[in-house]
Each structure stands twice: as structure tokens, then as C-alpha cells.
Amino acid sequence: MKSLFSLSLSLMLISAVSAMAGNNRSYAYAYDPEEFDFPMYSMEIGEGWYIDEDIGEIAMLLSLQGLANKERPQLYYVYPEDWIWKITRSLKAFYENRWGFDFIELSSPEEALETLGHHATGYVVWDKDERLTLMLAFTRAGLDNVLVVDEDNISRAEAIGLEMVEDYRGQFNGMTDAEIFEIAMDRYWERSNKDIAVWQGGFFHSRRMEPAIADYGIFRGAFQTDLSANPEDVEEMILHRRILEELNPRSLIMGWHSYSKDTEGQHVSLTSSYGHIMEGLNSLPNISFNTQIPFTPGFEFRNNHNVEPDEILIPEEKVYISLIQTDSMGIGAWELEGRGEIPYAWQPTGGWSWLSPAAVQYFNESATPNDYFIAGGLSGPGYMYPKPIPEEHFWPLMEKTKARHELLDLRVMEIMDYSEGNRHVGNQDLPEELVDRYYQAFPDVIGFINGYGAARTFDNRDGVPFISYDYYLGLGRPPEEVVADLEELMRLNQKRPYFLLIHVRESQSVGHVASILNTLPDAAEVVPLDIFLKKAGQADTIQRRFLSEDDPVDYNPY
Question: Which of 332, 317, 346 is nearest to 506 (CA)?
């Protein structure tokens, strides 16, 4: 491979994105890419992500990736077709086509170890009878550069000359999760990176385990855990809070909560209450590689704006519909059929501007004119709930968010809050004082979006609307029932213009959604989100409403 850009341009790009990374600035683009003229390797990673299948081999390969990429970005995995993140193959093609990377294909774990195993100083053995020890092993790997193996893979580690540095087998039998992590913190927390912690939750306590984010945790020297955020888990909560308290201000929480212990609402509420930034999921792949590759030289993210910021659009007396596909583009419908058929809004996660710049560029360059991008951090620079965020953290977090808006050419801010409910119970609404803060923090946006399911916070100030979702198009909802739901909303909201905002769950294809909307009455028009917001800003049909004392509160039992 040949040199792709000069050192001066490299340093300029690194400086710009590092500034947005905040506390993480020393890690954005950890490899200083004056030129990518070293070997890069790719490998198809296995499909047996189960405790009784290939998880031992996969965990070993993830640790190898984190260790190898500490030196430079040199190991990339292509994940199975059914993996939740759908873009690993497309992103590899992007690296090859736009950067000119010529990956050397590795055919087996043995070849991977023979090629890159020298980055390990030894190996640590985790105990498949006590699966939490895998999190301890990942933490130890990041701190001491050791390979992670189970007993079935010891021979592979020793075949390349590695020696055992610790064996967790039998050490933790019969202990509670809190007891295990208390020992882990005694051993490793002091040396762990205080800008980041990794939650290896998800399905970890079931047969299936998806610790794909482990490579990045190892790359960063992060403490890896799945401590509960459920107030009933008192002992785990003490340790959980200690981690959040001792991290540096506004640090990064990667991964995901444990489905067997707590709820998404409990986890993100607790994280937000300390002003930390959540970036999911535990299944997020290849970040130790992706984070070191910046935008290609000269690339600038350009959104598909349909109106100018100061333009005024007068609505007609009709129903306007706009659609937003949430839950991250990489796990959504970006590569499914129908994209481009109708106007659609997407969330390019703001943190990816430095965590995975190539993915952001890939989305931008493959967009159709009907694809419109909005702020996808949800409430801030990452996934956060604004009601629990202390005010002293709110303003610095929003400054970071605005920097990412500017980089990604975004004019719409989206907010979500599950701290007092979810789409089933409680509320997703915001008090007027918090809405005031958002208007003050983002004076240049053309509108705000709120909710996940339907919510009831609305405002309109100087033509800049604050609109909550009226409908949640979930997975598996029969098309005829969706049509009946939307027609009922139109009957209930008879005054025109009526602005019907729909949140589409991530795995619905655009073609499927378009086929449903094509059966609606002609009086309903699907429009791009920026046109939708501009027209809503000139309407007198938006009734201001904020969180009230009578609104139900539920601290996320689901």
C-alpha cells in the first residue's frame, strides 16, 4: 500500500476529532496514520457464540484483536450474516475501495495466533463453569497484554510459546456476582483506565454470549463487568456506583446492561446521573480497528437538507407524516430493501465520529437523496437520559454534542428519557425547565424530537418546534393494524395541519414501511423530516405541553 496523506493532514484530522472525544482524546486515532503501509489482516469470525459451542475460541480471538490493534490497526473481523450489526462486510469493502487496504485473509485461529500472537506476553485461563471470569480475563488482558483462553484453547496458546500468568478455574466457585466483582476490583480497578468502563451484559448469563466489544475494552485497558443497576441488587449497586464515582467526569460507558439483572432504563438512568456517556452495545464489533482509521482525506459529511435554516414553509390543511428509524443505523435497515423509496430520517450515532469514523463516512456516501440524518446520540453526545443528568454536567455535554452536530452537518436534535417510564408505563416526558435548557443549548437547530414510543411533550418557539412521537411502529405489527392505528390517530387529531411523527423500530425495512404507508388516504403526505419540522414551526396546531405533577412515574420494571 502507498502513503495516503501527509503527516500534517493526519495531525490536523486527529486534532479535530480528538477535541470532540473529550476525555477520550488521547485515544481517538491512537495510531498516527502518516501512511498505512503495514500488513492488515482480516478473518471470518465464527458463529458459535454459545457457552457450549465456540465461545472459548471466539473470546480468544477477540483478545488477540485487542492486543494486536494496540500497536496499530491491523486485525479486522467479518461477523456472521445474522449478527446484530449488519455492516462488518460492507465496512471491510469500504476500507478496501476507499482506503485501498489490501487485507491478508487469515484462514484459521492457528494462523491468526502464529501471525499476531507475539503481541501477547502470556495467557490467562477463564472458567467456563463461572462465566463471569471471562470479564475478569478481558480486564486482565487489557492491563497486562495477555491472551484470553479457556481450557480447550490452552494448547493453542502454548503452541506459540506463551506461558500461563493466571488460572481462574475453581477460584470463584459458589460466589455471588458481587463477590466476584469485588475481588476483580481489588485486583484490577486501580490500574484500569478511568476514562472508560465496559459492561459485558446482554445475554451473558444465558447460553449465548456476545462480548464483541471486548477488543475495544482491551485496547483501552478498561475494567469489564456487568454489575447491576437494579436498586434491589444492593451489593452490586455499591460496586457499580463506586466505578461511576471514580471514573473521570463525563467518561465513556461502553457495552450494555445485563438482561438478567436490570433494565435499560435503570442502567442508562444511573449512568446519566453521574454525567457519563453511554455507547452501546456489548455486541459492537471491530472498534479497536475502526477507531484508528479517520475519514478519508478531504471528506466532509454532507446532509441531504431540503430547506435552508432560515426558510419559512407554510403548511397546508392536511396530515404530514415523517419517519425516523432509531436504534442505530448499523443494526437497522440501512442495507435492507427499499431504502430511498420514501423520505426517511436516520441517526448516525454522534460518538461514531471518532469511535468509528469510516462507518459514518460509509453511511454518508451510500445515502440516497431521501436519506436525512439527525443527531443520534439521544439526548447528548451519546445515549443519555436528560432528567437525571446533573446540571453541572449538562452544559459541557451539550457543547460536545454541538461539536458533533457541526462535524456531521446535523440540524435536528433528538431526545429520549426512560428514567421515569418507557413506552409501556410511566412517562417519557420532559419538564419545561429542561426543554428551556435544550432550546438554550441548541439555538441553531430547526427542531427537536422527543420520545421512543408516543410521548406528550410539545412546544414551538419562534418557528422551532419540539415534537414528540405520536406512534411507535414496532416489529411484527401486522400492516393492517398499523394502517388502522394511523387512521385512528388522524381521526382523533382532526384539526389540520396534523403532524404525525413515527418512530420505526430498527429492523423494519424501508420497503415494508413504504408498502404500509401507500395504503393511507391521499390526504396524508410523507415528507422529509426537515420539511416536516419547518412546516410544523409555522402551524398553530401544536399545543404546548410539558411533564406535569400528575404524570405517572415508573422506574422501569421491564
Answer: 332
Taking the C-alpha atoms of residue 155 and residue 247, their distance in angstroms, rounded to an integer, is 37
Strand partners, 224: 198
Specify the 3-state DSSP secondary structure of 47.
coil
What backbone torsions phi and psi does residue 78 show, to the nearest 5 degrees?
-95, 125
Dihedral sign (CA 528, 296, 405, 69)? positive
Of 518, 531, 454, 524, the closest CA to residue 496 belongs to: 524
Cell, residue 232: 434491589
- Contacting residues for 529 by C-beta, under 8 A, at least 6 apart: 322, 323, 324, 343, 345, 372, 374, 412
Q: What is the side-by-side order of every strand in the sheet holding 164-167?
A: 147-149, 123-125, 164-167
Distance CA 27, CA 83 (A): 27
The architecture CATH gives domain 319-536: Alpha-Beta Barrel (3.20)
Distance CA 215, CA 289 (A): 9
Question: What 3 state SS string does 263-300 have?
Answer: CHHHHHHHHHHCCCEEECCCCCCCHHHHCCCCCCCCCC
pLDDT value of position 19:
42
Question: How would residue 24 be classed by pLDDT, with cut points 50, 70 and 90?
Answer: very low
Domain ranges of the chain: 38-290, 319-536
Question: CA angle 112-361-221, nearest 5°?
Answer: 45
The sheet that has 41-44: what strands, in order across it?
Answer: 75-78, 41-44, 104-105
Supply the pLDDT for residue 33. 59
Name the 3-class secondary structure at 449: strand
| Whole-number Å distance between alpha carbons of 30 and 27 | 5
CA distance 422 to 223: 29
> Cα separation of 345 and 467, whole Å?
15
Q: Residue 160 in contact with residue 246, Cβ under 8 Å? A: no
Contact (Cβ atoms closer than 8 angstroms) between residue 368 and residue 341: no
β pairing state of 524-526 and 319-325: parallel
| Three-state helix/strand/coil letters over 476-529 | CCCHHHHHHHHHHHHHHCCCCCEEEEEEECCCCCHHHHHHHHCCCCCCEEECCH
The Cα–Cα gap between 75 and 68 comes to 7
Kindly calculate the radius of gyration of the chain based on its CA atoms and give it in whole angstroms.
Answer: 24
In tens, the pLDDT along 36-66 reads: 889 999 999 989 999 999 999 999 999 999 9
